[in-house]
User: Fold this.
Amino acid sequence: MKLQAVLFDLDGVITDTAKYHFIAWKQMAEGIGITIDSEFNESLKGIDRMQSLERILIHGHQEQRYSQAEKEQLAQAKNDEYVALLASLAPEDAYPGIKELLQELKDNGVPAVIASASKNAPLILDALQLTDAFQAIADPQGIPGKPAPDIFLRGAGLVGADPSCCIGIEDAQAGIEAIKAAGMYAVGVGEQRILGPSGADWVLPSTSGLTLRQLLAAAHME
Ligand code: BG6
Ligand code: MG
Assistant:
């Protein structure tokens, strides 16, 4: 089977923005008397902004406390803090191996696509100077979020790829589930303990040194 596209999650795969999401959510949550830890944060990774807020409110037994308008304010406050944390993001903040892998994909004519829940994706790719490394960015607007397969299917559609001939790369449990639901080969970046149970086909500790050849061999593709 010939590989037709590689779909990348953004936060926690291309760069370490997952930590900034955690810092910003933790600060917002503390402001309303809710404590979140890194274990709970795993359940937020890959989940869109409003759904993340809902999960935090349920975690703190405050799901009935706020009106829709107040929830939007809380989410806005989190995003303001998050965007402020992004201000220092620079090209050298791409994770090790990412630029090399993207270059190798380009050299071999394999489209690279962003499949992220983040509305800040274009801003982050600009700061990393990686916008041109991707053939397409799937817009998360108007489709069900991860673990639903939609964002990966939309991404594959943008480059005319058959999902079963695609590889998805993710750092989140919900993201791995989404890739599998889309019928793609799922590469997890992180811990086997966290990503294995979600159905990752292959888990690596980091993207450092990751090559197209390794991806093809793992996925039994050409
Ligand atoms: C995902 C992150 O990539 O994007 C989540 O893993 C985040 O933590 C989601 O909530 C939405 O991001 P944003 O930037 O639109 O709030
Ligand atoms: Mg992620």
Q: What stands out?
A: The chain has a mean pLDDT of 97. Residues 148 and 178 are 5 Å apart (CA to CA). The beta strands are 5-8, 112-114, 136-137, 166-170, 185-189, 202-204.
